[in-house]
Amino acid sequence: MNENQNSLPNNPLKFDASSLLDNSEGARLEHHFELDKLPLNLEGGEKPQEATSIKGFLGLIKTLSYIRVQGKAEADVILECVRCLRDFPYHLTFDLAEAYRIPLEVYKHRHIEPGAIDEESSLEVEDKHYINLTEAIRQQILVSLPITPVCGDNCPGYQDRLDEINRQSTLHEENETNEEDVAEPIDNRWSTLSKLAEKDIP
To answer: How far apart (Å, rounded) are the C-alpha atoms in residues 71 and 66?
Structure first.
């Protein structure tokens, strides 16, 4: 069992797995990772926009056609409460279980039985020896989010938010009413005609 220290400086979620690929089946590496921020690429301003303080521990095991990744991780996100519609911080923990297909080129000097390599995996070892965990972790964060996020047991609920909206609406209506109540200025040029009209009334 070895501790892998070969993650790339500009991406702690991508690291060199060449030493694992050169080993026999059953070889194992362990990998700790930490990342300050990971964009979650949700559309339309949907929350959370990013995850922060991502860290975890992984074990990687080589099989005939895959590098299997298993581990645990945690991250912080900002969610919107479904009751009061306010943003709140949320800490989540999640498991990782992925299989990275080893490219056929790695086996070009070995005899492999037909059908032994499964070509259907969407994740693959990159450039023949790099494992990139970025997309796997992004997806796992998204599927680990609560379906109906609530800010906590002391959430004021939708009524508090509704009261706030009603107060704002009432103030707006009062302002409009006050503007309507302001008397229009009288044009003095018509005052003489008004007096004549009053004299004509029997």
So the answer is: 16
* Per-residue pLDDT at 70: 92
- Domain range summary for the chain, segments of one domain joined by +: 2-143
Q: Using DSSP, state whether 24 is helix, strand or coil.
A: coil
| Contacts of residue 114, Cβ cutoff 8 Å, sequence gap at least 6 | none
Q: What are all long-range contacts of 51-54, with beta carbons under 8 Å and residues at least 24 apart?
A: 51/75, 51/76, 51/77, 51/138, 51/141, 52/76, 52/77, 54/137, 54/141
Burial 157-191, CB ≥16 within 10 A → b, else e = eeeeeeeeeeeeeeeeeeeeeeeeeeeeeeeeeee
For residues 130 and 16, is the Cβ–Cβ distance under 8 A? yes
Number of helical H runs and strand E runs in the chain: 4, 8
Task: Report d(CA 93, CA 164) in Å as an integer.
Answer: 34
Residue with tokens 């992925």: 98
| Structure tokens that stand for 73 in this block | 């991780």
Q: Which amino acid is at 45?
A: G
Arithmetic mean of pLDDT over the chain: 77
- 42 φ, ψ (degrees, to nearest 5): -85, 145
Q: What is the arithmetic mean of pLDDT over 163-178? A: 72
Distance of CA 7 to the CA centre of its chain: 23
